[in-house]
Write a structure and sequence with these properties.
By secondary structure, the protein is of the alpha/beta class. 29% of the residues lie in helices and 23% in strands. β13 and β14 form a beta hairpin. α2 crosses α3.
Length: 290
């Protein structure tokens, strides 16, 4: 495949479905650059069947085999049944061989029973940042799927032509196309938090930050009930979504820094890496990370 970009088509996290204002421009530019193209929907308030119809209706520069992704990132709306309903409707519109994915963090792949979703052939795009220093840190563990096909390994990537940090990804050779998954469903026997990271952040550091705010947690690198309860309490006192997940917004608040939303997804397969802004903004799309 070489270099690729997965662009945001739309979402419903703001209370209603919207098409991203840059989607058409981005999708056409990626296609014109001859790079792999994927399209994603950011989960939210919309009925998943309605959202699937709107997503399909808005597709730009779509080709069979492009990844079509349900981004299960807004924790309030994460649900295996919603993912399945969305996938079923996309398949009803585009064919049973539509290349459908769900995007989630490693921890979320363990936090719900995804067995039916995995068995239905929905593929996995997993986010696991490890030390989140821009370098690839190895294959992540995941729940219920027998394998991941795309791995988002950092939000601190750098590419020529863009001064900010970017999400970076690796894809396996069959991530694009119409090939089906094995259909093997794996029942998780261990927690992804055993690595000492949760949602891509060091659990020990999260515990230290919470303790600095007056909590009294053991720094044991385990995202257990006490840590989750402390996170929920902290979130309730600081105007954050109270979900017990110490994700980007909570981490930024704990650290006393400003949190910015993610820009766009870019990626790499094999050794090739390229940024969305290389392709979309007319800079040197050479696939080289400076």
């Amino acid at each position: 495949l070489g270099s690729f970009v997965i662009v945001k088509a739309g979402g419903s996290d703001i209370g209603y479905y919207y098409t991203d204002s840059m989607y058409a421009r981005n999708a056409k530019a990626v296609r014109a650059a001859g790079k792999g193209l994927g399209h994603y929907y950011f989960n939210g308030y919309d009925n998943p069947t309605d959202a699937a119809n709107r997503f399909v209706n808005s597709l730009v520069a779509y080709r069979k085999g492009d990844p079509l992704v349900y981004d299960a990132e807004e924790s309030r709306f994460v649900s295996p049944s919603k993912v399945q309903a969305w996938a079923n409707q996309v398949r009803a519109r585009l064919g049973s061989d539509a290349n459908i994915y769900v995007y989630m963090s490693s921890s979320v792949s363990y936090s719900y029973n995804w067995s039916a979703v995995a068995a239905s052939g929905v593929k996995l795009w997993v986010a696991n940042y490890g030390r989140n220093n821009g370098a690839y840190h190895g294959s992540p563990s995941v729940g219920y799927w027998d394998k991941w096909l795309i791995h988002q390994y950092t939000s601190s990537g750098r590419v020529s032509g863009y001064s900010g940090a970017m999400d970076m990804n690796l894809a396996k050779s069959n991530a694009w196309g119409n090939s089906s998954t094995t259909g093997t469903v794996v029942t998780p026997t261990n927690s992804s938090t055993k690595s000492g990271y949760y949602l891509g952040y060091s659990i020990a550091q999260t515990q230290r930050l919470l303790n600095a705010h007056g909590y009294h947690l053991a720094v044991d690198r385990s995202y257990g009930g006490a840590t989750r309860a402390a996170v929920r309490d902290y979130q309730s006192k600081h105007g954050l979504t109270v979900d017990g997940y110490a994700g980007p917004a909570t981490q930024a608040s704990l650290s006393g820094v400003h949190s910015t939303s993610r820009i766009a997804v870019d990626g790499a397969a094999g050794s090739g890496t390229i940024g969305l802004w290389q392709q979309v903004m007319g800079t040197n799309a050479d696939g080289v990370v400076s």
